[in-house]
Amino acid sequence: MNSPIYQTVIVGGGFTGLFTALHLAHNRYPRSVILIDKNERFCFKPLLYEYFDGEMDTFQVVPRFAELLQGSGVIFVQDTVQSIDLHQREVKLVSGDEYKYSNLVLALGSVTGYHRVEGAQDNAFPFWTQADAIALDKHLRDCLQRALQTDDPEQRQKLLTVVVVGGGASGIEMAATLADFLPLWYSALGGNSSEIRVILLNHGQEILDGDINDPLRQIAETELQKRTAPIEILTGAAATAVHPNAVEYQSNNQVKTLPTYTTIWTAGTSINPLIQDLPITQEHRDHHDRLLVNSTMQLLDFPEVFVGGDCAAVENKSLPPTAQVAYQQGANIARNLRAIALKEELEPAKINIRGTLLKLGLNDAAANLFNVFEVAGEPAHLIRQGTYLTLLPTPIHDFKATTEWVDEEIFHHHLDSQDVGKKVVQAVELVGAGVVGVLVARRLLKILGDDDKNVNKEQGTGNGVQ
Question: Can you give the pLDDT at residue 52?
């Protein structure tokens, strides 16, 4: 198809891609912008657990791109990318459409990595998208129903055992979530909640080893044992095979078996195949095959191409593959795209790592803020959700989702609203309004009838932490 020569094509609608588009629209970028993603909805991945367990609604966690981009001038194309030709500056889609570009933004993220473990891709559940969450929800509900209907103790135990492979942040957040709400589900059906088993299988000797959340390990280990169903943590246990009814793992040079009908795979990621297929030499990739970019987020051999998020590696700089990094890279890429269009000087990307947030079950979390403060329990939970809600893609969506969350958290989940409000305000005062954002604290104070003036007036950054 014929396209204008001066247009920017963004491939991938994750944090980097979507926020690049929104920042371009907000700053009146003079060229047309096309955002391509195979999905109808944006997925706010850090809050996917809340969508999965019913703590948050669809519009809060997986809003439609059409809604988020309404009135922005950005053209959204729901289609799958077939190939990217860097030399011809062309993106080809499965539908047969082709888009020429003057500038390209690659924001394809990563995909679930199964590391050649036998049967993992076929028999384990990934947890990466809305579709993954829906599939796992359906499977678990089916297992609970079948467990109620069987008189075979061995069969029932398999149905009520969940094995989470991977002791990084994703695995811990998944295990903690399951260990809290699965017993509630089963009990509500009339089952014995004490029969629920949640097992965390970790290859290394310590959970969170080498993860950005490493400082929160001690809190995590403590909080995981406080769940409704205490989590069994197996360390030094490398998964070797996943079958429909069992997981095999190696520990102390012995192969062992865990009988289960539910294996959830959170053991790392791999580079997106489209990124793998690009004509970029190995010397211009890192050891994970991510594309090396310069300080302004441009490809070394193709400066008209910007790359951010999980598929990018900045030269001489190590950045964690988290939402806060991808979001900030999107803002930086947008600023430099506008500079190119206006023939201004490009600026190096500035990334500020503000800490980490870790979900540890229903209404529980841990927060490491600027590597200075650690907060755990309900205050950390409120900080985590409040922080992420300030990062939602548009002001209208942010306001709607935040007010829904405040109403649910303050008035439906807590009897002593005044006390909860004080907890949040105390947490904000402790770690600085820049972490949570004045947005949540002020709204809480208004709802609870307190004076706005008591809140630290510094404006929050609005950037997510994880």
Answer: 93
- Residue type for position 80: T
pLDDT digits over 406-431, tens only?
445 543 444 344 454 444 444 444 43
Q: 177 and 227 in contact (C-beta within 8 Å)? A: no
- Burial class of residue 62 (count of CB atoms within 10 Å of its CB; 0-12, 13-18, 19+): buried
Reported residue count of the chain is 466
| Beta-bridge partner residues of 258 | 247
Structure tokens at 174: 């998944």
H/E stretch holding 112: strand 110-112
Candidates 21, 63, 44, 1; CA nearest to 308 is: 21
Strands (DSSP E) along 253-372, which ranges? 254-259, 262-265, 269-271, 291-293, 305-307, 312-314, 355-359, 365-369
pLDDT at residue 394, rounded to an integer: 64
Two structure tokens written together for 226: 């406080």
Strand locations in 260-408, DSSP E? Answer: 262-265, 269-271, 291-293, 305-307, 312-314, 355-359, 365-369, 373-377
Retrieve residue 46's tokens.
């850090």
Pairwise CA distance, residues 40 & 178, whole Å: 27
In degrees and rounded to multiples of 5, residue 235 shows phi and psi of -100, 165
Please tell me if the domain spanning 7-45+58-110+270-341 has the same topology as the one spanning 120-267. Answer: yes
Is the separation of the CB atoms in 242 and 118 below 8 Å? yes
Radius of gyration of the chain (CA): 23
Mean per-residue pLDDT for 146-152?
Answer: 97
113 phi/psi in degrees, rounded to 5: -105, 120
Q: What integer pLDDT is reported at residue 442 of this predicted model?
A: 40
- Looking at domain 120-267, its CATH class is alpha beta
For the segment 136-155, the average pLDDT, to the nearest whole number, is 97
Token reading at 164 = 């989470």
Task: For residue 295, give the DSSP letter.
Answer: T
pTM of the entire predicted model: 0.84
Tokens representing 79?
Answer: 């289609």
User: What is the helix (H) or strand (E) element at residue 201, kind and residue range?
Assistant: strand 197-201
Residue 26 makes CB contacts below 8 A (sequence gap 6+) with: none
CA geometry: angle at 339 spanning 333 and 341, to 5°?
105
The topology (CATH level 3) of 7-45+58-110+270-341 is FAD/NAD(P)-binding domain (3.50.50)
Kindly report the backbone phi and psi dihedral angles of residue 106, in degrees, each rounded to the nearest multiple of 5, phi listed first.
Answer: -95, 115
**How far apart are the two ends of the chain, measured CA to CA in Å?**
40
Sketch the domain layout of the chain as residue ranges: 7-45+58-110+270-341, 120-267, 355-454
Q: Residue range 214-219: average pLDDT?
A: 91
